[in-house]
Every structure is written in C-alpha cells, then in structure tokens.
Design goal:
The complex is a heterodimer of chains A (506) and B (352).
Chain A (H helix, E strand, L loop, with lengths): L10 E10 L2 E11 L4 E5 L6 H8 L7 E6 L2 E3 L4 H7 L1 E4 L11 H5 L7 E2 L2 E2 L1 H14 L15 H13 L5 E5 L7 H16 L3 E5 L3 H7 L2 E6 L2 E7 L5 H9 L9 H4 L9 E10 L3 E9 L3 E5 L6 H8 L7 E6 L2 E2 L5 H6 L2 E4 L3 H5 L6 H6 L14 H14 L16 H14 L4 E5 L7 H16 L3 E5 L3 H7 L2 E6 L2 E7 L5 H8 L4
Parallel strand pairs in A: 3-10, 3-11, 6-9, 9-10, 15-20, 15-21, 18-19, 19-20
Antiparallel strand pairs in A: 1-2, 1-4, 4-5, 7-8, 11-12, 13-14, 13-16, 16-17, 21-22
Chain B lengths: L3 H23 L2 H17 L6 H26 L7 H17 L5 H26 L4 H20 L4 E2 L3 H8 L1 E2 L2 E2 H19 L1 H11 L1 H6 L4 H27 L1 E2 L7 H11 L11 H20 L4 H23 L3 H6 L15
Antiparallel strand pairs in B: 1-4, 2-3
Helix pairs in contact in B: 2-13, 3-8, 3-11, 3-12, 3-13, 4-5, 4-6, 4-11, 5-6, 5-11, 7-11, 8-9, 9-11, 12-13, 12-14, 13-14
Classes of the chains: A alpha/beta (506), B mainly alpha (352).
Chain lengths: 506, 352
C-alpha cells in the first residue's frame, strides 16, 4: 500500500501491546515514521492513539512490542530519555512557564549558556533568536511567554523541542485552540522542519488539516493498526471508514431532518446592548424557540465571554438578558439555571464534569439546585433521569455508577449534554460542543442538537469549526473584536464568507 | 417469574455497591491493617492493654481529636484545611466558662451557645472569607489560628478558669449504659457526619466542590454556601471538642488545642481523604484517629516515650500516602515532576 518501500523508517514501533487493568488499549499496533515526513496518526477516541504517543514519548512503558529508532532497537524509559534520544512532544496543554521569557522557556532545565557558572544572557538570547528564526518567526526572545498568542506559545514549545536536536516531533492536537491564520503559520513551521529533515507525528480530529498537511497516514482502531498509506491514496470517506470500521455519513445531513424554521419564531432568549468592558460591547441577539443560532469568530473575539455573561458567570456593565419574555439580570449560574438556561462549557474536563463522581451524579447535578440540601437523593427519581439520558443519547458506560472519568471523550461530552437536557432548558448554549470529539460522536451530537431544537428549545452554539455552524444553524452571528459584525442566514453562510468576516474584512 | 433484566439490574447495583465499598476502604486499608495488627500485638504482649478500663481510656482520650477530625474531613474534602480548629477549641472553652460563670446561664444553654458560636465563627469568618470573598483557605485559617489564640490569651488573662457544672462534667466523665459519654459523642458525631455525606445533596455538593469547583459552580451548586457550611461544620466540631475538653479538665484552659490542627489533618490524611479534595470520607478519618490513639496508648503502656509516638505517626503518614499514590498511579512520581496532578485517578469509589 505504501509508496516507496525502500525508504527505511526512522522510527518503527511494532507489535505494541498495552493494558490498563481490564482495558486492552493497544493490541499489536504498529507505527512506522520515515525520515522527513509528516505522519498523521488517526483513530477515534479510545482507539489507542494517545497510548501509542505516550509510549513513544516515554510516559508509558508498553507491555510488549519493539521500538527501533534510526535503525537501532531502543526503548524510552522516561520523557527525558525520549527527549535525549531525539523525540520531542508538544501536547495540547502548553507546558511553558508563563512569566518567564521566551529564551528562558526554550532553554528551561539548566541548558542556558553559562559563563563562569552564571547565566550568559547575551549568548542565551542569541541562541533563542536562532531557534525562533529556524521556525521562520521573528519574536523578541526576552518577551514573557504570557503575552504571546496561543499559536506563538506552541511555536515556543516547538522551538524548545528542537533546541535539543529532536528528529521526531510529536504534535498532539496542536490546532484545537488556534484560529485559521494561526493554524496556517503552524503548518508552515511543520513544513519548514520537514524540509530540514525533522519528522512530525501529527494527531488531529480535523480531517481537512490532516489532508492538507500529512504525507502519510496510519489508522488505529480498537488498538489494532488497520491501515497505513500515503495521503494521496486515501479519500476522506475511506479514511473515515477505516477509523470507525463502518461506512458512516461524516456528518448528519441535518437539512433533510429539519423542517425549515418558521420565519419569526417566538424569541426565548433576547439579549439587548450587552456590554462587558474589554470583552464585548453592544451585543444584540435573539434566539427563537426551536431555532439554532451560531456564533462564529476567532478565538478571542469574545464568544465564550458572551456566553458566560448570559449565563451569569460574569456581570455585564450594561444591557439586558430576557429569557422567555422575562427580563432580569442573571446574577449567577444558579439563577440562570432557574430561568431555564443550560450551558455546555468549552472544556468538559475542567468545567463540564466532576470527573471523580459517577455518571449518575453528574447527570442529575444540574437538576437539583432547587432541592433542599439536606434532602435525600431519591434513587427512583435519579434512575429515571439516568435511564432516559443513557438510552436517548446512547451513552456507553459500564454502569451509571462508574466514575465519569472512565468514559471516552465523546461519551463524556454526551454526559455533559444530557446533564443540561435533564434540567429542562428553554435555551441551551454550547461553547465548542464537539471539541476533541471523534467523527462518530460528532454526528450523534449534531443529530441530538437538531432534535433538541425540534422540541422547541432555543439553541445557541459558539464554535471555531465553521463547517459545523454552516451545517446546523438557521442563522449565524459573526463576532470580531467583541462585536457582532454580521448576521448570515442559512443560505448566505459559507465557510469562506465566515472566515473572511471573522478575520475583520467586511 | 421475575423479570430477568430486573435481576440483572439489581445484581449490577449490588456489584457496584460492593466494588465502591471495597475501593473506598482500600484508601485506608493499609492503615486499617496496621491498626488491627498493633491492636493484636498490644493485646498479646501487654496484659493491661485489652482491658475494659484501658480501652475506655483509649477511646475517651482520642474523643476530642476524633470529633475535631470529623469536622476537618468536610473541609479537606473541599480541598481545604482548617488550621484554626485548635484555637477555636480553646476559645470556645473560655467562652463556655464565661457564659457559665459571668453570665450565669444554665449549663445546657451555655453549651448550646458555645456550639452555635463555634459554628458561626467557622462559617461567618473562615467560611465567608474563603467561600464568598475567595481568599486562600491557608491564609485565612492561618490568620484566624493566630487571631483566636490572641483573643484566648487576652480574654482569659492566660489563666485557667474552673468550671463547676454537672452537665459539663458529664461531657467529660458521664456514663450512659456504663459507657463514657465522650465515646457516645464520638459515635453520634460519626453517624451524623457519615449520613450527611452519603445521603444528602449537601454531601454530594461537598464532593462536587472538592472534585471540580468550576463544574460545580456551572451546574448551579451554590459553591459559596457549601464552603461556608463546611467551615461552619468544622467550627462546630471544634466547639464540641472544646466542651468535651472543658468537661475532662473541669476547667477552661488557654493552653489546650495547640497540637490539634496538625493531628487532625494527619488523621484525615491517614484515613485516605485526599488533600486535593473530592475523595475520601469520615470512615477513613475514624480509622486514622483510632490509629493515632492506639499507638499513643500502646506506647505509653509499654513505657515508651510519647515522643516516639510522634515519630511513628509521622513516618506512617508519609508511608501511607506514598503507598496510596504508588498503588493508584505507578507513574505518579513522573507525572508530578512534569507538573501535572494525579487527580484523575480519584474514583467515585474513594467515597463514603
């Protein structure tokens, strides 16, 4: 299947097995990375991608299997060991020290230039500048990292990885928090590195990016390797087929499912002149019953802050929020919930779920804010909510009593959704509802949102993934620097147009 | 015929429950085994150990620490610590003596007033500053530790005040069905705390706030109120400890309680409650306190200096927490070095 079989792999992992307790995460998986290539590692959540990456970066030891690097058998005992051998990892969460300078971060770990036992700042800065320039960037190495854009922070991490002469760079979902421009600049860096002879292992849930950037693709499913191919030989459909193991419409054809919305549905959420200094200003927004409204814009355009303010997490300096004709300032999330607003936050792990608590307890959590605190949680009442949620959303869990942390990402996201649906909302707001969710679960979430709207709930979705907004929404508001700069109807909304407006061009 | 799915469901529930109970107890299993071993060894080697008077003495002597530690458990479950419990305990003793001697209140009313004052002090000062204003629990309770100690010394003139009241005596030496009152109070405290944590929404809020404060807030849980109540419970427990202390001494002394905060924290952690919050419970704390008490009692019977008890408790505390971490997450050490917590290991299971 592969193009030129004569190219010897730079990094080869074969017959990898890893068990966590009862879970067999890797079952003889294989990954072969050639010199100077961008290699995408694909698979649904739970397919063993992360386990494979953690083994290659020395965070985990495999139970069985062999690794060879540059032709020699080896193993990576610790992250430091992997790094020393030339494998550097840049993870989703940045691991930079925000108050230290770029130069200090690049050479963190006693690797700054020294003279007479003291740090030689001048040489350190010169070297840092060289490391940044290698990535085709021009940044002042003495800037504190805190002041950098998210993509630039990632670049600093990459520069740090490369300053140790890495030959393989592992990028685990590097683009999930970047805007289109930032993604492009990151990709340029990866391509520059490839031309320099550095290989990149790249993980992303966004298929477009994979097809744009990767030279070759390996697919894992249930811990097995199910395919390895050059990108040119694969189509999107065949890739998805390999990942999920069955033919699947990539996205729900929501159009067919949805009756075209009435022209003027009764507004359930009405926002007027909402302003929070430094975040957003003069926002007017209506969401009708049964309507799905999208909120597009770059990261930092004020979308998340707007949703949080409507939900009562932040207080606005001006403006009103009305739920179902009842105008009042929502002082707190509790108050918002009582006014029947639901909010699915962007980060399910830090905001959406209490990971250590059971699926059951998470599911009923948003329904109990009115209950006296010394009351006994009645099992029958909870069982009803839980059964309903688990069957209608098809949440895959061993039992409702297991900790929600044991579920896969897609199922966790379904728990967050179910938790809000159980609270009986009139308005459901979602911030990045499919971030870090695999294609199969994505389609289910889309279907669900469409069904929720059909039941008369007003849905407000903020997303960086323009295609999903175009697919789902009746209307889309585009935000730029804290203001809504355009409203697009379903017919007018195209990805290109939204990207154009979101970038500040009218 | 019974519906088979129903049986399956019931069986599943029983299994879940058993699994939950087992892994909850596994958080303090090591300490429990040690406790039992020490107990057996002492019973076999020290003829005075396994006798009714000595066991009563053992339990009464840990009763104050026990009650305070149960209150502290609530705080630790929310990822906090209450350093002020010792000086609260002393202050409540002084307050009790003043209510009795200066205000001439009937004893029952004085006790009630003291308990209410302890809860108010914990809730309205520590709780409001931490839960509502959002200050760090460490700073606030370190501050009130010093503040209350100062008030104790000023108010008492550093002198011990004698208390003569049959009710207060009862708290120290009374007997119900032949068993000393402090033991009954311990049992009652444990039962109430266990029930609240396990069978109320408030108990769930405590775990949710400790497990993920942001998610709790976004789910409509009143985080501020939960924290205020948690510190109120800690203050109430300290006040109850102060009443028992006054009963046992027959006096209110400004010198009591100084070692309580750290002993209580040690007992809670020995009992498997994670100082990161969200995991643990009062059963473990009970085991932790009994462990410290048995060690103390056994060593003193064996004629070993009580300083050794401190050494042993310290070593066991560190070893127990280390074993727990290694068991739950063998690579915990490595993750730590990379600046990540090991929170995710915490299961539902580590709960009441």
């Amino acid at each position: 299947m592969t193009g030129s079989p004569d190219t010897a792999p730079l990094l080869l992992a074969e017959g990898m097995h890893k068990r966590y307790g009862g879970v067999h995460a890797l079952r003889g998986a294989r990954l072969s990375v050639r010199p100077a290539e961008v290699h995408a590692l694909m698979g649904e959540n739970g397919s063993g991608k992360s386990t494979m990456l953690r083994i290659l970066s020395g965070q985990l030891q495999p139970d069985a299997g062999s690794i060879s690097f540059a032709g020699r058998p080896t193993s990576f005992r610790t992250p430091t060991d992997a790094l020393r051998q030339g494998i550097a990892t840049v993870t989703q969460e940045t691991t930079l020290a925000p108050d230290l300078s770029i130069a200090e971060n690049i050479f963190l770990g006693h690797r700054m230039a020294r003279r007479a036992g003291l740090v030689d700042w001048e040489t350190t800065r010169t070297r840092a500048r060289a490391a940044i320039e290698r990535l085709g960037l021009d940044l002042d190495p003495s800037l504190p990292v805190r002041r950098l854009r998210p993509d630039r922070k990632q670049m600093v991490e990459i520069a740090r990885a490369l300053s140790i002469d890495a030959r393989v760079l592992i990028l685990d979902e590097p683009t999930s928090s970047l805007t289109d421009d930032e993604v492009e600049s990151l990709f340029n860096v990866v391509r520059t590195l490839r031309d320099d002879g550095v290989s990149t292992i790249f993980v992303s849930h966004r298929l477009d990016e994979v097809f744009e950037l990767a030279d070759r693709i390996s697919v894992l499913r249930d811990g097995h390797s199910v395919g390895e191919s050059t990108t040119a030989e694969l189509s999107r459909t065949s890739l998805i087929h390999m990942m999920v193991g069955r033919a699947l419409e990539e996205e729900t054809k929501a159009e067919g499912d949805r009756a075209s919305t009435t022209t003027h549905p009764r507004p359930v959420l009405r926002v007027r002149g909402l302003t929070a200094p430094g975040m957003f200003a003069g926002v007017d927004l209506d969401v009708g019953a049964g309507e799905i409204v999208g909120l597009a814009g770059l990261v930092g355009a004020g979308r998340s802050e707007l949703l949080e303010t409507i939900f009562g997490l932040r207080s606005p300096s001006e403006g009103t929020v009305e739920v179902d004709g009842d105008g009042r300032t929502l002082r707190s999330p509790r108050h918002a919930i009582r006014n029947r607003i639901g909010f699915v936050p962007a980060d399910r792990k830090t905001e959406g779920l209490v990971l250590g608590m059971s699926v059951r307890e998470n599911l009923v959590m948003a329904t109990t804010s009115r209950v006296p605190r010394l009351a006994y949680p009645r099992p029958a009442r909870e069982a009803a909510i839980v059964n309903d949620a688990m069957t209608s959303l098809r949440i895959r869990a061993h039992s409702p009593g297991v900790p929600v942390s044991t579920l896969s990402g897609g199922n966790q996201q379904k728990v967050v959704l179910a938790k809000w649906l159980a609270s009986g909302p009139k308005v459901l707001m979602l911030d990045e509802p499919t971030r870090g969710v695999d294609v199969g679960a994505k389609a289910e979430i889309y279907r669900l949102l469409v069904a929720v709207a059909r039941d008369g709930v007003g849905v407000l979705i903020s997303s960086s993934e323009t295609p999903e907004l175009c697919l789902l929404c009746d209307r889309i508001a585009v935000m730029f620097r804290g203001r809504i700069v355009a409203w697009l109807s379903r017919e007018d909304a195209t990805e290109a147009r939204i990207a154009h407006i979101a970038g500040g061009h009218q | 015929m019974t519906d088979p799915t129903n049986i399956d469901r019931r069986r599943q529930r029983v299994l879940d429950h058993a699994a939950g109970a087992w892994s909850a107890s596994s958080r303090y299993a090591a300490v429990l085994i040690l406790l039992v071993s020490i107990f057996v060894v002492l019973s076999l080697t020290q003829e005075n150990f396994f006798t009714r008077p000595n066991l009563e003495n053992l339990l009464t002597s840990v009763s104050i620490l026990f009650v305070v530690s149960i209150g502290m458990t609530f705080v630790v479950l929310t990822a906090g610590i209450d350093l002020s419990v010792g000086s609260t305990l002393a202050l409540m003793g002084i307050l009790l003596s003043h209510l009795l001697n200066d205000f001439g209140l009937p004893a029952w009313l004085a006790v009630l007033g003291t308990l209410v004052a302890g809860a108010l002090l914990g809730g309205m000062v520590n709780g409001v500053l931490i839960g509502k204003v959002g200050l760090s629990f460490f700073v606030v309770t370190l501050g009130t530790l010093s503040l209350y100690q100062g008030v104790v010394n000023i108010w008492s003139g550093t002198e011990t005040t004698y208390i003569t009241s049959s009710l207060i005596d009862w708290f120290g030496f009374g007997k119900v069905i032949g068993i000393p009152a402090p033991i009954w109070i311990m049992v009652a405290t444990y039962v109430i705390a266990f029930s609240v944590l396990r069978w109320t929404y408030f108990g769930r809020d405590v775990y949710a706030v400790g497990g993920n404060i942001e998610a709790a807030r976004l789910s409509g849980i009143n985080v501020a109120r939960t924290l205020i109540f948690v510190y109120a419970i800690s203050g109430l427990a300290a006040a109850l400890g102060g009443v028992i202390q006054a009963g046992r001494l027959g006096a209110a002394s400004p010198l009591v309680g100084t070692s309580i905060p750290l002993d209580a924290a040690a007992a809670v952690l020995l009992g498997g409650t994670s100082f990161l919050g969200g995991v643990g419970g009062v059963t473990g704390t009970a085991v932790g306190v009994l462990f410290i008490g048995t060690l103390q009692n056994g060593l003193s019977i064996a004629g070993v200096s009580s300083f050794w008890q401190q050494v042993v408790t310290g070593v066991i505390l560190i070893v127990a927490v280390a074993i727990d971490r290694l068991q739950q997450n063998p690579s915990g050490r490595r993750l730590r070095r990379f600046g990540r917590g090991t929170r995710s290991r915490a299961g539902v299971d580590g709960r009441e």
